[in-house]
From TrEMBL:
Residues 1-38 have a biased composition (Low complexity). Residues 1-71 are annotated as: Disordered. It comes from Amycolatopsis acidiphila. One of its GO terms (molecular function) is metalloendopeptidase activity. It comes from the Bacteria. Coiled coil: none annotated. This is Peptidoglycan DD-metalloendopeptidase family protein. The keyword Lipoprotein does not apply. It holds the Pfam family Peptidase_M23. The keyword Protease does not apply. Keywords: Signal. InterPro entries: Cell_wall_metabolism_enzyme (IPR050570), Dup_hybrid_motif (IPR011055), M23ase_b-sheet_dom (IPR016047). Residues 86-180 form the M23ase beta-sheet core domain.
């Protein structure tokens, strides 16, 4: 005689034989998946710079062509085209007759008159050429010069100059005009004066 009816099985129905064990916290194999090592994702390296102008920009190598450090009366304005408007150099405040100094070592490739103005051009390493005007040259073509060597004196009469005299100083590489102030090896403060077109 059975008392109290059929035996009651605690914990619910038993899993059939051959079934995978149920891990605590989820479906079969969930814990094993949690224990597997995480896959490392390597960040892609940043793309290399391909800007040819940035890659070819020359390092600062020049000194000021006037001493003491002059005021800039008109800054460089890069022309958009070879024959477009702009200011292909900088104008530096000077005194009439003030000495002009070579901005870097090189060879004088021109020393003479252009359109009634005295001009000196010097070729430097790296394909750079500096030009100084209006000046009275004191070195002939073919002279090897060092940085800071006197090469002429400033003449008054530069167009648009707001002071007694200005030295126009230009730098180019081939047919490309560069900003001379970006090529000066100095940490001195560059003082800019307001420029008004003539």
């Amino acid at each position: 005689m059975q008392v109290g009816g059929p035996p009651v099985q605690l914990g619910g129905p038993q899993a059939p034989l051959g079934s995978p064990p149920v891990q605590a916290g989820g479906a079969p194999g969930f814990a094993a998946a949690q224990q597997s090592p995480a896959r490392r994702v390597e960040a892609a390296p940043p793309p290399a710079t391909t800007d040819p102008l940035q890659a070819a920009e020359p390092e600062p190598r020049f000194t000021w062509p006037l001493s003491p450090v002059p005021q800039v009366t008109r800054p460089f304005q890069r022309p958009e085209t070879d024959y477009g408007p702009g200011h292909r150099g900088v104008d530096l405040a000077a005194a009439p007759g003030q000495q002009v100094l070579a901005a870097g070592p090189g060879v004088v490739v021109f020393s003479g008159q252009v359109a009634g103005q005295g001009v000196i051009s010097i070729d430097h390493d790296g394909g750079l050429r500096t030009t100084y005007e209006p000046v009275t040259p004191t070195v002939p073509t073919g002279t090897q010069v060092f940085a800071g060597q006197p090469i002429g004196t400033v003449n008054p009469g530069h167009l648009g100059c707001p002071v007694e005299a200005c030295l126009h100083w230009g730098v180019r590489r081939g047919d490309e005009y560069l900003n001379p102030l970006a090529l000066i090896r100095t940490e001195a403060v560059i003082r800019l004066k307001p420029w008004e077109p003539p």
